[in-house]
Write the structure tokens for this entry.
Amino acid sequence: MTTAETSNAVRQRHKASSNGTKSEEKAESGELGQWGRAWEVDWFSLTSVILLLCFAPFIVFFFVMACDQYQCSISHVLLDLYSGDASPLSIWQRAPSLTWTACKIYAFWVTFQVVLYMCVPDVTHKFLPGYVGGVQDGARTPAGLVNKYEINGLQSWIITHALWFANAHYFHWFSPTIIVDHWIPLLWCTNILGYAVSTFAFIKAYLFPTNAEDCKFTGSIFYNYMMGIEFNPRIGKWFDFKLFFNGRPGIVAWTLINLSYAAKQQELYGYVTNSMILVNVLQAIYVLDFFWNEAWYLKTIDICHDHFGWYLGWGDCVWLPYLYTLQGLYLVYNPVQLSTPHAAAVLTLGLVGYYIFRVTNHQKDLFRRTEGACTIWGKKPTFIECSYRSADGGTHRSKLLTSGFWGVARHMNYTGDLMGSLAYCMACGGAHLLPYFYIVYMTILLVHRCVRDEHRCSSKYGQDWNRYTAAVPYRLVPGIF
């Protein structure tokens, strides 16, 4: 069956599952199921996808090699390439190759996280007040399905880090610098897994999708491969690709990678700088927040709208652990001891950014859980009431909050996230550009996400969305954007 035929077959199944005449008319008109990932792809999107598929792996390689061979100096790499003192081939030849040790380390790591995810049901929610874990419902998919998830990421993080510290202080099974010592060989391992899981998800969508109603095909194999076809690919009842790869191998490792960097700095120089401590603390707050609010994360754009393809599969295995931790890697090669005012400013920016990020998300979660029967900033919340249709023909209602931070801008959580991202970078001083890649990337990512999210909401809610944007006119920065 061709891609177009498969797409049509899925569309026909959507119509067959509708319960009424009006739903069928909606399906035939092409309006039904338009929220979520797009059915069609324009040339600009296709070109962007092909460029990312071609160059994203080399961007990761470039930054890692800049640190390994040029003390994290981007300008020195570019000058050597321009003058002919180096070439892409010579840099490649000097890079450490794949090793069996790295393969064993990474295979054990991923297997261990799978075991924690699949075989250790959450118990932390039973004794941690306010924490929501265990079996939880996800958001309704475009086809009208509500998946169940085992929320145990915080428990997995605690177990993993408890074992890490027990090893460092008591057992001494391996060196605390094990990650950074094998950093480049591990890069090849993460790429192997990233491409393997992305390719498997791509083939699975054609041959044995978990839910055919939530598959979306375009006429482009490149777009399908990168952006994904299946909405929630699963193996068995509980192994959900999106939840596992979004949260476990990469984000659980994030804090371990930073700890390994700190241990390496101690090994090399005999001390750990305050900048390294700041990076570890601020990023650990972000990671812990992610796992504390994992049940809330089920309602975010990654789970609610993105399909699972290379964008998430390779991105979570490679891009996230290697580029989100650039600040710590930079500080291994370039230890920076900040002045007290500089360190205080970085800490303040990071904590204020986190406060805005967390309170904004908390206000939305509180509003959802109480269905508006709450107070925000001491007042009864205001909202825009909306309706939308899922692909199963059902009509659903939703409320868009216009109080608190959500009345200041439509994505104030992203604003806080960007403030925290800038703090990570500022902790590294201003001598090199490489640590600031993160804030540049996050700005592009979150602005693009704003546009994507609002396009989907416009398709989903129609005129109701126009009423919402009239009530809250700014996206990220009040009065500016």
Observations:
- The beta strands are 134-140, 146-151, 234-235, 239-240, 383-389, 395-401.
- The longest helix spans residues 340-370.
- The longest strand covers residues 134-140.
